[in-house]
Amino acid sequence: MVCRLELTNTFSLDIVVQGFVLKEPTGRKSYVKGKTIRWNVNSDNFTMDVLIDGLSSELRVGRDQSITVWYFNMIMAQDVKLTQSDDFHLMFDMYRVERRLALVVVVVDNSCSETLDPMLDNADYVPEPTIPDNDVLLVGLQGCPLTPSKNGASYSTSPLKQSAQVVPSTSTIETDPFDIVEEYVGVDDEYMHDVHVDVSATCVEKGGDVQVEKDDGDVFAHHEEEEVADIDPAGYSVVHDPENPDIRVGALFPDIVACRKAIRQRAIIVGFKLAKIKMDTTRFIAQCAHETCKWRIHASVLQDGKTAMIKTLPFEHNCPTQKLSNCTMASRGWIADRIGDWVKKNPSVGAKDARAKLQDEYNIKLEYNKTWYGMKVALDQMHGSYEDSFPLLFNWKAEVEQKSPGSIIEIELLKNGNKYHFNRMFVAFKPCIDGFLAGCRPYVGVDSTSLYGKFKGQLASATAVDGHNWLYYVAFAVFDSETNDNWEWFMKQLHRAIGSPPGLVISSDACKGLETAINLVFPDCENRECMRHLYANFMKKFHGKVYTDNLYPAARTFSERKFMYHMNLIKEANPSAIEYLDMHHHRLWYRCGFGEASKVDYLTNNISESFNKQIKDFKGLNVCNLFDRIRELITEKFCVRRQIGERLKSRILPHVIKQLNALSKTIGQNKILWTTEHEAEVTLLDVKFVKRHIVNLQNRTCTCRVWQVSRKPCMHALAFICSINGAEIQTYVDDYYSVEKFKAAYAGRIPSMTDKSQWIHVDLGFKVHPPLQKAVASRPRVQRIRGWLEPGRKIVKCKRCKEPGHMEKTCKVPDPKYVAVDDDIPEDEDVPDPSISTNKRKKDDDAGDAADNEVLINLIRKKARTTPEKPNTAIKKKTNVKIATTQEKTKNKAPLMKAPTQQKSKKKTPVKKTTSTTKKTKKNVPFAPVLPPPPSPPVLQPASGAKRSLLYWLGG
Fold first, then answer.
1. Quick one: pLDDT band at residue 789, thresholds 50, 70, 90?
2. Are 587 and 511 spatial neighbours (Cβ–Cβ below 8 Å)?
3. Across the strands, what pairs with 460?
4. What is the C-alpha end-to-end distance of the chain, expressed in Å?
5. Which range (232-246, 320-334, 537-551, 796-810) has the least confidence?
6. What is the radius of gyration, based on Cα positions, of the chain?
């Protein structure tokens, strides 16, 4: 087998047509939805005229409208409009390696004089790409891809800015900055290095001979010999079509079961029901369920004891069709037989899709529940039953440990009485462990995703990135829920696998149990928090332009001065926002605090989300099949990437050098002042704000800190390097981006395994039962709960406080209908103070509480009768009541005397009424004691290298 890299002039174009308003000659306006058109074109013959002619046949525009085409220019790092055919040569040269790019078509109204160009918002910042949902990558300056929208094949143009879109968003939610500047993680980017397989010898059949053709021209012919057939001459030759069975007298079937299935299939196709069914292992008797129909059938087994034949079928059907009602002849087994192969090819389909397929194919009506159970039978036939999958885990473990010694596989059981139940399992392959330690940067993302199969557990994962920024698989595990104990166990197993490499960084989301486990097991590592989760949690509590304009820029900057500037603006607007961040999000989420050893500047935990997206179709499988499918996925990725690494000859990965070369072409006017042989002051004059930084080539540092954190030269360093004659950029790139490290990461080989019937059998001496799960009252959830800022989420708005994010039932603001005001209390009635305690016995306390409750209920009823709601009635002004603190209540409390007898005292303790010089006031009736807020935690001076408090940054 010979593999080679091949580049041709054929390009794949994804032409993304933005939605627009069509203006017809009659004056009528209609909105045309956007769509995606995919073409395969030859770069030599593709011109502007060919493009416009092709688009004209696909689109219909108005008389005063024209078509404009845009693409992302990697050299200029912005979106450029195609105007002439010469621009196509430049565009195709940029994407010569990828051979795939996107063109965005915008329909412009010529009657309007204003035409907004999709320019970059910030000239000194290059936007980082997002993760493509369908794993289609269009590499720009930093690998900017297209991300598909919710409408099937239509794509949103994430490299283009919002000014290029025709229909702007009218949502009241603040703009999500992660739609454009989210860190990119490659999942299925191996197509950038196309590997074509040539078979050195091909087999050709000609007539009765089989010839083997080789590259050297030699032909070896093998003459066909007589085949020996092991067929019983006295047996029956049966040809049976299960989909269109032949139901007639004398028809043969392989066995009686196949005969029964054929009769059921015929009943569903024709549209009749069977009744008075009699069957056993040798015969089948039935008749039509309609009263006036005389159709009946009789089939039995022949003398060989296996082949079945229809012997009696005297009448034809004369009954009406039964297809207009729910099909009762479609059993679970029939549904499983019809959709079994289809489910294998489409593992992500559900019962709703299967129901629609069968109804369209057979023109019948099916119940959803029956289809769901039939699909369950089909899945059990493919993957085995749910109960039998857990004992197979020990066989799978023994097979992997034999094929790949050194792999870490831990299975824990839970004993409940005399039964042993599955509890949790951890897997880390030996090639993945060695590859991470030898070829990947010390950066690990940890997260979990819910399983929606019969086992409603969690699939935890530890992932990393290689030099290509491609997703790397370190370890994964399964447990029942995200508890502190499970996360601590997972982190201990992960520490057992990878240890504590120097400069290790662990990134996680806002899961508190996981953060506690990281501090316990990896106390010396750098713990980062996903900025996207923090941003979503923060926006639930704080809304406003000052937060959207300063929070994410503060996290994105590498400069401490800029960080303090943005955070001070938030502090001036609302000091409680800083206290919230310091109390609830005390991990590292800002780049100015990142260490320089990991060489990763990601703000989000995108690598974990990429893994969850990649194994989405596996989450409904049984645990054993889930682990084996993940093993197959890792095996495939290691094999393909190992072949790619073997064909790379340079020192640094070509993709990294290409990014740096493209970034260097964006540098405009600059001023370089040499101070020493290796140090200079670099001033970029064409940016919005002229800034000067100090670059040291010997120490590989820049005062902007981009070079130190990412270990790839920044724009200032590139300007200095390119000004030196003979200097090469790859000399100043860290070794973690080298081809040698990339090869070391994928040097190992994931073990190849046979099917489960050939695995090593492990006898435990007891049966492993399924895990104990809590009973769920409602229907099991399949789709996860969307985040606060994710598109498609239904935002609930409270009817009481008018704030989004919660319902009226869970609102913390008291209902005004049940708040007693001063005027509701009679003047001649003394209301007891609930803050004053008594020393009566329990019986007296219960009686007093009942009396107090009766008073409150009477007050509420009185208000409902006397103060009906009127829309035009003026609101009555309430008297402000001071809520005393606990110390004041204790100080002003009068000494109480114990009652001499156990009889109920009718006399209540009088409450001292506060009087005013102008008007007599009364005290409100509180429903619950109000406690003072807890004191703020003291601000301590952080140790060297630890995460600094926000109050420390801001001088608090």
1. low
2. no
3. 448, 477
4. 67
5. 232-246
6. 37
Question: In DSSP terms, which residues pair with 221 in a beta bridge?
Answer: 211
CA 231: distance to chain centroid?
56
- pLDDT band at residue 303 using 50, 70 and 90 as cut-offs: confident
DSSP classification of residue 303: T
Whole-number Å distance between alpha carbons of 94 and 87: 11
**Is residue 265 a contact partner of residue 254, using CB atoms and an 8 Å limit?**
no
Is residue 412 within 8 A of residue 393, CB to CB? The reply is no
Predicted local distance difference test score (pLDDT) of residue 602: 92
Mind listing the pLDDT tens digit for each residue in 621-675?
A: 889 999 999 999 999 999 999 999 999 989 999 989 998 999 888 888 888 999 9
CA dist 711 and 705 (Å) reads 10
Residues 6+ apart with CB under 8 A from 790: none
Q: Where are the alpha helices (DSSP H) in 321-480?
A: 332-345, 351-362, 368-383, 386-389, 392-403, 430-439
Closest to 631 measured CA to CA, from 801, 865, 396: 396
What are the two backbone dihedrals, phi and then psi, of residue 932, each rounded to the nearest 5 degrees? -70, 155
H or E segment at 709? Answer: helix 706-710
Rounded Cα–Cα distance for residues 844 and 905 (Å): 8
DSSP calls for 809-861:
TT--SPPGGGPPPGGGS-TTSPPPPTTS-----HHHHHHHHHHHHHHHHHHHH
Length of the chain: 956
557 CB neighbour count, 10 Å cutoff: 20
Q: What is the 3-state secondary structure (H, E, C) of 504-568?
A: CEEEECCCHHHHHHHHHHCCCCEEEECHHHHHHHHHHHCCCHHHHHHHHHHHHCCCHHHHHHHHH
**Phi, psi values for residue 746, rounded to 5°:** -115, 25
Q: What are phi and psi of 386, to 5 degrees?
A: -65, -40
- CA 149: distance to chain centroid? 15
Look at residue 718 in the predicted model and tell me its pLDDT: 93
Please tell me the predicted confidence (pLDDT) of residue 485.
93
Cβ-count burial 372-391 (b if 16+ within 10 Å, e if not): bbbbbbbbeeebeebeebbb
Catalogue the long-range contacts made by 273-280 (C-beta closer than 8 Å, 24 or more residues apart).
273/322, 273/328, 273/329, 274/329
Nearest to 160 by CA among 176, 177, 145: 145
Q: Go through 88-101 and write b for each residue having 16 or more CB atoms within 10 A of its CB, e for each that does not.
A: beebbebbeebbbb
Per-residue exposure over 502-515, b if at least 16 CB sit within 10 Å of its own CB, e if not? ebbbbbbbbbeebb
CB 657 within 8 A of CB 713: no
- Measured between alpha carbons, how far is 346 from 357 in angstroms, rounded to an integer? 13
Q: Are 494 and 462 in contact (CB under 8 A)?
A: yes
Examine the pLDDT at 320 and tell me if it is beyond 70: yes
Q: Whole-angstrom Cα distance, residue 654 to residue 722?
A: 18
Region at 240 (left for phi over 0; alpha for psi -120 to 50; beta for the rest): beta
CA angle (682 as vertex; 676, 684 as ends), nearest 5:
165
CA 668 to chain centre: 39
Asked if residue 779 has pLDDT above 80, the reply is: no
CB-CB contact of 810 with 797 (8 Å): no
Partners of 11 in beta bridges: 41
